[in-house]
Amino acid sequence: MQVYEVGGAVRDALLGRPVHDRDWVVTGATPEAMVAAGYLPVGKDFPVFLHPETREEYALARTERKTAPGYHGFVFHTAIDVTLEDDLVRRDLTINAMARGADGRIVDPHGGQRDLASRTLRHVSAAFGEDPVRILRLARFAARFGDFTVAPDTMALMRDMVAAGEVDSLVAERVWQELSRGLMEDHPVRMIEVLRDCGALARLLPELDRLWGVPQRADYHPEVDTGLHVMLVLAQAAKLAAPLTVRWATLCHDLGKGATPPEEWPRHIAHELRSERLARQVHQRLKVPTDCAELALLVAREHTNIHRADGLNAAALLRLIERCDAFRRPERFTEALLACEADARGRWQFEDAPYPSRPRLLAAFAAAEAVVTGPVAEAAVARGARGPAIAEAIHKARAQAIAEALPALAALQAPGEPAA
């Protein structure tokens, strides 16, 4: 029996990156021998075992054979005579198809070290084309390793897979899993670029894909192209170390511009409501988690109003805060403002510009939230108020608090055009 460390742990060690998870392949063993050695079987489709002490995964070397369309259509085979090389050839990318023996020797039959040196994402074999999930995985690795490029023959293979309809067989849960992981990498724009280049974006997120080539007003958007703008916004969200909810919201905030009739370009009147409608469509199709979906809808609907907060009076500021449901969902409101800051900075020449709307709205919200509503409600009741009249009294008290804070808020303003 031989044990080898495989996959990402070997890759990351060679790159000098931290190794968080380790996977192992065992050759020359049977399931019975693994159990006898104290390993706990957990695999469903093929024998995988947990180490009795470290709880790391140890899998018997295996081969696989495509038997049906889609990424579920595989039959796996394990046997005592399956070699390490047999196992490695079924892996997706050369940089993930290396192993390290107990003696420290690197087993690299497919040139993984060469491709690490040249910063290349390259498929191991034609078997890559049998599993459409690998397109998503490669795009995610492009987001992790931002200076890596996709080998031309690998890109050609992915385009062939898209044309053959393989991507259409992906289930929503797996698509979201890979997209969400890629969005949280250091270079999420690279994931979108790769998916768009191979044609997969048009199949998975056509609402986003159609933004490229759609012009915007050059006075607000020097970059002009809507697709480019959204990528700049996503890059800003990553720069701000934003959570997944915010990064997803940046992708969805301008979807409505792709539905503007060409004769109305470059203006996009009422694109906010169209963006909200299209985002709902995406969320339903991909089964997007509630927290991501809710923030994306809020940002799509209100981002233009948030950008213009420096021109709003106390009453308008409060109405905006209330529409954002900030008193019940303050964390979501804070995330919406972060997404809008990324949007405002996601434009050429505005990357490092101040964004006064965010601190202004946070300060206005703090002033309104500081109002102790109990005494206000009691006073209203004493005057004979009931139901909506009590709520209106609280509303007026909060507006008054914001108005009193406006002189201090004015210092937070800075010159600059609002983004749309």
Automatic annotation (TrEMBL):
CTP binds at G8, R11, R91, R137, R140. Its EC number is 2.7.7.72, 3.1.3.-, 3.1.4.-. Magnesium is required for nucleotidyltransferase activity. InterPro entries: CCA_bact (IPR012006), HD/PDEase_dom (IPR003607), HD_domain (IPR006674), NT_sf (IPR043519), PolA_pol_head_dom (IPR002646), PolyA_RNA-bd (IPR032828), tRNA_CCA-adding_enzyme (IPR050124). Its cofactor is Mg(2+); Ni(2+). Signal peptide: none annotated. The keyword DNA damage does not apply. GO terms for molecular function: CCA tRNA nucleotidyltransferase activity; hydrolase activity. It comes from the Bacteria. Mg(2+) binds at D21, D23. It catalyses: a tRNA precursor + 2 CTP + ATP = a tRNA with a 3' CCA end + 3 diphosphate; a tRNA with a 3' CCA end + 2 CTP + ATP = a tRNA with a 3' CCACCA end + 3 diphosphate. ATP binds at G8, R11, R91, R137, R140. Residues 226-327 form the HD domain. Monomer. Can also form homodimers and oligomers. Catalyzes the addition and repair of the essential 3'-terminal CCA sequence in tRNAs without using a nucleic acid template. Adds these three nucleotides in the order of C, C, and A to the tRNA nucleotide-73, using CTP and ATP as substrates and producing inorganic pyrophosphate. tRNA 3'-terminal CCA addition is required both for tRNA processing and repair. Also involved in tRNA surveillance by mediating tandem CCA addition to generate a CCACCA at the 3' terminus of unstable tRNAs. While stable tRNAs receive only 3'-terminal CCA, unstable tRNAs are marked with CCACCA and rapidly degraded. NCBIfam families: PRK10885.1. A single active site specifically recognizes both ATP and CTP and is responsible for their addition. Comprises two domains: an N-terminal domain containing the nucleotidyltransferase activity and a C-terminal HD domain associated with both phosphodiesterase and phosphatase activities. This is Multifunctional CCA protein. The lineage of its organism: Bacteria, Pseudomonadati, Pseudomonadota, Betaproteobacteria, Burkholderiales.
